[in-house]
Amino acid sequence: MYSTYLAPDNKNVPALREHINGIVCTRESGTFPIIADPLHLYVKGDVTIRRVNNTYYFRDRAFEIKDGSLIIDGKRITLPTRTTISTVERLMLSLGMGILTEDVNAVFDITEHSARSILSSMTTLAMRDLGIITNNMRFAKLIKYGEVVFDTYLMIARGSGRIKATNPSIRWLNEVDTLQLKSKLFSTSDHRSYQAGVHSMQYEPTPLAEMVFQTALTLLLAIDFKENEIIPQPLDFVVPIGLLREIRLRDTMLLLADYVGYNNGFVIRPTLKDDQHSRVYSVFTSIGSETRKRLGFINYDIGSALQAICMHLVVDPSKYPLHQQLVNDRRRFRTQIADEANEDIAWVKEELTSADNREDMPKRYNTIPTLKAYFEEALVLRKEVIGSAESTILDRAMEYAKPEWIKVWDEAEKKYDFIDSGRKKESSIFFFIWTQWERQIREVMMSCFDNPYACHQVHDAIYSRQIIDPKVIEAAVLEQTGFKVQISAE
User: Fold this and answer.
1) Residues in contact with 95: Cβ distance below 8 Å, sequence separation at least 6, in sequence order
2) Domain coordinates of the chain in residue numbers?
3) Average per-residue pLDDT in the chain?
4) In a 3-state reduction of DSSP, which class is residue 88?
5) Which of helix, strand or coil describes residue 332?
6) Which of 110, 279, 328, 343 could make an SS bond with 347 (beta carbons 3.0 to 4.6 A apart)?
7) Model's pTM, two decimal places?
8) Could you please report the per-residue DSSP string of 150-202?
């Protein structure tokens, strides 16, 4: 059973929280009998309420609980008589708020707390409902579990799942996780792919973790939210409650982590990461293409962007016939490789981009003749693009490119170490060259729309709710950059 009290006219009166350590509180006819001595309650931290005869002591203050009232400093405040607690009240308690109303259906204002604190609290409540964590620990640790589990899940959802061992949440789980939830909620990659200082460990949520966040979402959507007055910004968009129930769970958590208020749905305001003169990253780049479509956005995509850009950067495109084939008729070229590899088109699209940015050829390419030849052609193409790059673009690429690591055997430790060679990876330099040109093309594409600042950038595409003929965009790109590209709208 849950109970709470916070005197509205005396801030020093404690907010009584949920009982722990197996203590059961029963309440009948407005009474509030306490049947343990001492009684351990939560008040933003952990507090022991001492009892002497019929008087209780919180720190150096005395109070009585009598006839359904709390008596302190000569004041009598009637305690709640309910024996149940609503989801919104559970959330308020976990956020350190007192409950000042008997209304179990209170409207919650999400602007009063950060998205992280609310979602972390819902994670804690979900883990408790599923029996993953119990009340037999300090309140602060219960909340901390919710924070680190939510943060870890969010980091996985945002990218490849690789998280550094120095990350605060991972460190906490490694050092303080007495319940060993890390192994229950997150699986890790094959340790052979982990290289200290080079490749971070890769994490993936277990089915139990997915259950936790599905439960957290269910709890969150059971709450009634206050409608907020929000000054809109160009990239803001609203996600209706109904849609959150339909899109994939990871996308839901990613979107909710960027809310700024509630107005006929959650108002999402993407935070942009734009610090490399190439690609721009935000929640919009992390959610799936199907979710973007469900949100009402049109995908204006540069067809075979990498290859189309590179064909303009080299002196003689005919030296790279396979790349030119892909630019001229990407559907036919991808189908040819799909047939050779016995894979679908989605696999081929990903593998072609990978082939252009790889250092070494995978063995599987030996059974796929066209893909093998394409990779060999890509090695030559890459060197020409780097060798002919403009000085400003090359300098930026060198600044952001990943280092080339050397594998060295440590005889004392009997293991391999990886040390910085002082050189940059060729594939990484190449990436940061062509993506700078890609950025210029995106910016021209955005200028074709009524409000360029309302366009979401996603790698080689922009997303907008405005309908424009792709031919208009292609013409603008050709005129302003000299690049001839094909733009599709889906």
Assistant:
1) 113, 117, 118, 121
2) 1-84, 115-269
3) 84
4) helix
5) helix
6) 343
7) 0.79
8) HHHHHHHHHSSSEE-TTSHHHHHHHHH-TT-HHHHHEEE--GGG-BTTTBPEE
